[in-house]
Amino acid sequence: MLPLLSLPLPPLSQRVTHQLLPDGYTPSPTSLISTQDSTPSLIRRSRPVPHGAAFSYVSPLTLPFPYEFPKEEVKAANAATQNGGKEGIGEESAEQQYERQMNQVEGVLRRYEVAPSDLAAPAYPAKSKDGLAGYVAVGKQSQSYPSARLLGISPAALEDCLPELDVGDSFDFIAKTTGRDGPDTYSSGPMAQQPTSDEGKARYQLSDVLGGRAWPAVLPSNEAELDDFSGCGVYARKVADDWKKEDAVQRWERRKRELATRRQQSSYAGWSQAYAGHQFGSWAGQLGDGRAITLFETLNNTVDPPERWEVQLKGAGRTPYSRFADGLAVLASSVREYLGSEIIAAMGIPTSRALAVVSLPDVDVMRERRNPAAITTRLAQSWIRIGSFQLPASRADWEAVRLMGEYVSRVLFRFDGVPESQESDVQRQPWAKKLLLEAARRNARMAAGWQSVGWTHGVLNTDNISILGLTIDYGPYGFLDIFDQEATPNHSDDMARYSYKMQPSMVLFAIKHLATSLSPILGFEDKHGRAPSPGELVSMKPEDLEELSEAGEALVRADVDQTFVDETMREWKRLFRNKLALEKEEQDEKSALLDPLLEVLEGLDFTLTQRKLKDFLPVLEESVQGAADQEEGIQKAVDSFVPTWYDGTRVLEYLKDDKREQAVKWLTSFAQRTLRDLGDDGVKAAGWGTARSAGMAAHCPRFVLRNWVGQEVVQRLEEKHDTAFLQRVLEMCLHPYEEWGSARDGKSEEVLEEERRLCEVGTPLERNMPSCSS
């Protein structure tokens, strides 16, 4: 078992920061070093990033914004400015006063970044020459800097993604501190007790990194080894005038040289992605990770081939993409993402994972009200999304699109014939259409999974659609309690663009924009039978690129639609057959059985109504075996089962008779289909009802994370620090198909009653979920 910072990094050929182009203001991890003339505000100042930039190097800073610095920090910064402590400040011009204030801000911010003098003695020394060390800047050592409290760790995410990670005594620490408040509940930070045991030290390191205080990086061991890129903004200020004089070809040649240099360096640090996107159907321009910072990549070497994972903090402070926001996250949205990610994973739907949730008890976040701050640790094989392609494509930066596509094809999709080399004499196999259709298939399967469990994402902007087909960016999501195909959990979605019914169409909308972003490469590959070489696209005339783009989009338009629709339908029908314990596919099953089922479910509890169907099959077996013919047995089974299955209490009074008749008709069709599926020999075999009932129970959840349940978890954390309740709900999220509330394992009646309560509809919450920016 390994402490967090000792987890293995992937080889240079797989690292995002060694394969894609960085922001020109942070061209290297050493750019984050706090030098005398650095401008650390540029690390988080909201700004457009230069052409070609796929990411910016960023370190976490968990302070409220606008920043309110401790007095001792301001005093130290004042002493370092030219006018600090001098008389006659009132005589300054407005311009001088502004410059002095900006210098003061820069001076304070430098104390929160690692200084050259810190390089020789990191707080957590690296275990190997090229391994991660953990640095705690002087400003983060102050007693006023926020300490962290571990609220939860997902054992499933730990086992599935990072099985070699040593979390020390984290689980015991969380259990021991439940229901309590105060400094002794901090798991790391200036106010936390320093542990003496190895288990305590592993937990402290984990919490210190996941709480955003300790910065993981691979840096030079002393000041003498620093390069010209050291100090944020310093390098850019020296060469920015030359950048303005470049044409597109010259810019690519420069960036190609920078990339070649970067690929030879072992220095390493965290980053935030640059991307763009369509929000609610309208082009929004540059967006990016406004409050997400990927700390590092690692490999799960217990599987073959090793599986890469990116460890990311959500809510750890401002980045260049934060716009007017503070880069922080509230406890409610953090806990919802933690629980939501893990239940979606437990249901077998492709998703990012949530390793942990950490609170910052001394940090307040202002949204609709004052909220406690928290950070979610998210894991994904990659956080590249469709918007990652849209940003460079919108700038006609086709070399950056090509670099991104080659990285995804080679490292993430593992396509053959896509070389790492950026030399033009290397043969390149076509990859763009393969990437596009693979992304379409993966996202189709994801969307079908959502539809099968009645889950709505709420914010299906193109920047929230993963290139890998993972459920990402959990915001105002929700499981549908009372089923309504027009429902959306997002209070900002006035037109119900992202309703349950519309979700597959909106994912396809995003895939089509991926095709647009790849269009000149698609056209080039079709025309030449190979992928473009480095520099080839940037050297082409605009009219030739336009011709290739039009040809490329036309080439794949029908294939994209057909691939996505076919894959969505195939997966959707497969998932619903599993829910109904049906083994054989029938040609008309969508129109004859599945669409009518959704019509029956309108106005009913989506989850429990389907779960209760498992009890019908033993009744059907008994009725058919004891009847003169099958139709008589079916009728008997339906008549006896409908009163216990169909709950019309929330159906409008004037619709109740028609809806009940609809349920009877569907149940009869389901019984007939089940008997056809069994065949004559299967119907005669004893015990098929019980066996198929168990099959349904394995695919129809007993528990889903209803919105009111998530709200109760948050409320009990805020008011009672009840991490034990969070753990109980997490356990139910990790095993949604168990028969919660049924006597087993010696559980007390009190515990069983709580389980039953948490599985019920309760009070449905519809459109007042935390927003995607909370």
Low-pLDDT runs of 5+ residues are 83-88
Alpha-carbon distance between the termini?
35 Å
Backbone CA Rg? 28 Å
Q: Estimate nothing, just give the exact number of structural domains.
A: 3
Choose one word for the global shape.
Answer: globular
How many DSSP H or I helices?
24
Helix content bin: 40-55%
User: Helix/strand-derived class?
Assistant: alpha+beta
Strand content: 5-15%
Q: What would the average pLDDT be, to the nearest integer?
A: 94
| Strand adjacency order, main sheet | 3-11-12-10-9
Largest sheet: 5 strands, antiparallel
By DSSP, the count of extended strands is 14
Describe this structure in words.
Strands 3-11-12-10-9 form a five-stranded antiparallel sheet. It has a three-stranded antiparallel sheet with strand order 2-4-5, with no helix packed on it. The longest helix has 38 residues, at 542-579. It is globular, with a radius of gyration of 28 Å. The chain is α+β, with helices and mostly antiparallel strands. The protein has 24 helices and 14 strands. Mean pLDDT is 94; it is low at 83-88. Strand 9 and strand 10 form a beta hairpin. 43% of the residues lie in helices and 10% in strands. Helix 12 crosses helix 14 and helix 13 (432-453) packs parallel to helix 15 (542-579).
